[in-house]
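To whoever picks this up:

The parser on our side crashed when reading a file containing two proteins. I've narrowed it down to the boundary between the first structure block and the second sequence. Both blocks are reproduced below exactly, byte for byte. First block:
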Amino acid sequence: MTALTLSTAAAPGLRADAIVIGVAKGAASTSGALVVAPGAEAVDKAYDGKLAGVLETLGASGAEGEVTKLPAPAGFKAPLIVAVGLGAEPEDAKDGAYDGEALRKAAGVAARTLAGSKKAAFALPLGDAGDVGAVAEGVLLGAYAFDAYKGNGKNAQDKKNGKAPLAEAALLGAKPRDKAHKAAIERAIAVSEELNRARDLINTPPNDLTPESFAAIATAAAKEHGIKVQVLDEKALTKGGYGGILGVGSGSAAGPRLVKLTYTSSKAAKHLALVGKGITYDSGGISLKPAGHNETMKCDMSGAAAVFAAVVAAARLGLEVNVTGWLALAENMPSGSAVRPGDVLRMYSGKTVEVLNTDAEGRLVLADALWAASQEKPDAIVDVATLTGAMVLALGNRTFGVMANDDAFRSAIVEAAEEVGEPSWPMPLPEHLRKGMDSPTADIANMGERMGGGLVAGLFLREFVGEGVTWAHLDIAGPAFNEGGPFGYTPKGGTGSAVRTLVRLAELTAAGDLG
């Protein structure tokens, strides 16, 4: 991963491949003219204060994600200036008060643009330690590349995609001896490394990432970071009565697993449980997906990847909260042993479920894990899943839906997601939709009304949350896997959606700010 350094050096004398600066669309009072953001004063001075005009001549507007390159002025040791758009200039921009997400995106775009470079200096606005952390995250997430299957895999020069990620980034204006700045960098590194690990897992082909190998990766990471781990294989799942996980995994030669990761703090007063859907490949089972819908189904374990990353990040940060992660892992395949539409499964909770559609499998594995998590009576449970195409239709490809059995908790999650830059939207759990899952054969069916399918799935999951336990459901089906081009600090492929929201929830819980 890209190495980060904090530097108080002046931009002209810094040896680097490029100096990154921010530009923005000016306020209406200045007729929207391009402005150079704080942090780039030395660069602007070298252009006799006319840098904004030069950039406008080159077509720069300051729009978010826009990149304009120009030769560095005389006297600079770096040969290149990279101006990246921050969007609209805030009213208090003179104080460096740019939105953290704008800084994160700008840093991400610049880091990706500078792939192949050895070192870049980032002279972006740094109003406080929060901005330092935002720029650091943007660099580390934007520089991400998944090339494990390119070339012969021996070294970066052999990769067929050509350019290695940016090797080093110096954050100008960030103070190496400032405790808050150092803490912001350390947090950014821990969260970004774990989020990028989640991206790696999501991008790994399903022939290499099975429930068993996922469990092995989680076990190794848990041992490295002092996290207790328990893995239930087919024998243990059968003995325990985990009918949902076993049913979904019954059609595959790769057996299912339930992984429990337990991070504990001696100073913890609260316990947060996280549950992740981990379908390492989803064919739809007997209810086979139509042509054109299978190619990206390696990403159906994104929820489990997010939970795994969040638990490890909490441990690395030493958060004063107990965090338990449950990874419900299975491969959903059609075969002679696969669960069939019309079959009835007895879940871990004891409830029976009539399976009407084997492609509604995520809720079945989550149901067992939710009930297992509930038995420990945590202060709250949050499940994360690429659960329904209906949520994508409702909210698009960049926003995840949030449902909960407690309105205040749902609002807290939406606020936390907004704070870290992950778009989300509160969704209801309409009681009238529950009747559509009534079954003449079992306690409940795994399908209900087609319209509002994402909400129906949430209502199904609620049935398996223990009484009195605060719970929320994050449907990340849209933002978990980016099939389009990269944007901001988001790459093509696995995104690591919800990792930062979960880490922030753990931090808020540790601080006692979630009740």
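<<boundary where parser fails>>
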Amino acid sequence: MTACAIEDETAGAVRTTAAAGPTPEAAEPDGPAEPVKPLGADAPDEGADPAGAGTPDDDADPGGARTGPGGAAASTGPGPHGVPHGAAASAGTSPHGAPGGAAPSAGTSPHGASVPPAPSAPPVPSVPPASPAPSAPPAQAAPRVNRAEAPRSRTPSRLVPPALTLAADHTYAARLIPAGEAEGPGWYPERWTLDGPEPYAVPLPLDQPEDASSDVLPLSDGRVLIRREVEPGTHTFSLLYPTGPGTGEVSLGALDCPEFVLLPPSPDGMSACALLPGERSTGVWLVAGGAFGPERVADVPGRCSGGVWLDREGRLLALDRQMPGGGPVKAVVVDLERGGEVTPLLQIAPESNDRLLMADADSGLLLVRSDAPGHDRLGWGVLGSCLPMRFPECLRTPDGTLTPFAVQPGQMLMPESCAVALRVDGAAGSWVGLWRPAGRRLHQFAAPGGWLCGSGFWTREGVLHLPYSQEGAPCAVALLEAPVDEPHPAVAFGTNTSDATPARRVCTPVPLGQAPLTGRTAPG
């Protein structure tokens, strides 16, 4: 699959294109939304008002004629971006136990998933306690990094680590939790097992605590990758795994770089990549899953951020790129199996900042953030579709911030039916928003107490899993079913009878610069 996007320089059109395939039909236009706010126990859902059946689409980004593809040239021949050091794991000493079956150590027995019902969410039935899983077999410890020669920094760049990171297949999760040191703040990794009948956590402490600036990323086999900044500009990588009462560690090497961004878990579940931004280009490095420690797999001209996987194989990586010298941010696709070949993905307007937030490999649904409508707004489109991007009114929240964090999988060729979970941040705190492109409504629910904000995943059946941790339930998951969107009533105009439905108008695509994004009225 090749992903690209085309900018019509003469008409300012918006397109997201890919390999040839069926193009789903577009959803109905969205109407204006009420201000986003938490719902009470007996308050109705508030979302977008139904759009008039015969009105133009206020939220669609109009498009014009298509042109031929224009992909950016990719630089080839990757070379070393940093000097790797630290011991790499040999084939004879790399443990591959069965961490998924490791039972918690003393004091960390599996906890029940009793879920306090959210005000608007259905109650979650209690799950009977699961029997302890067999312990992982002991594995030979690999050589550790000499921490006396490479002391860890005690001035982390951030004070609080990310809430929770999920593996690519959602079987495991990992986070850093406070160690409770008397002499100062400290953290240690904790791995969650989520694919059993009952979630449970396994602590992975070592001989000294971690910094909040460290990153943890779970793999699908139960091991946890940890990235540490042992000194300014030096980052080391290790794999952690439970070994009965202790924690095993395999060193993967190190990189010297002033900036470092760990990407989301690779879809293959066994590797991890990172971005190393430079002055004129950004290196894409494989930091876990390689044969000889960290290795550079691509070099992308410009300064890149973000990171969204577009396929199930871990080949197509979407990045938000700004070219050297400034200019707008545009999403591009990097093909890691073709020497880092770069192709444009989003170009909504010549000077707009177009970022890709999430993508679903099954349906092709894309969630973007762009200032093409005049200010930053959430929009959606379909990978490979000829239809323009849309910016629904129900996702426009002046008093809050919406951030998507999960898309329902398994909806093959049906992007409009995918349920999307969004984190809603406002003055009252954070809560959960659920939305479908075809539903045109933002349903809002109070999050469970202790929700690890911004974390969660969908099942194919449309059940949202929200991990949370609170007193009495340090490792638990709340379940929330996607609501059913009610059909929108038809809008009758003065020239029609009360039970007649006006005929739909055909919307003609026009250039974005000529599109009246505000002030539209219904046809008379």
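After patching the parser it read the second block fine. The two ends are 45 Å apart (CA to CA). The first strand starts at residue 165 and ends at 166.
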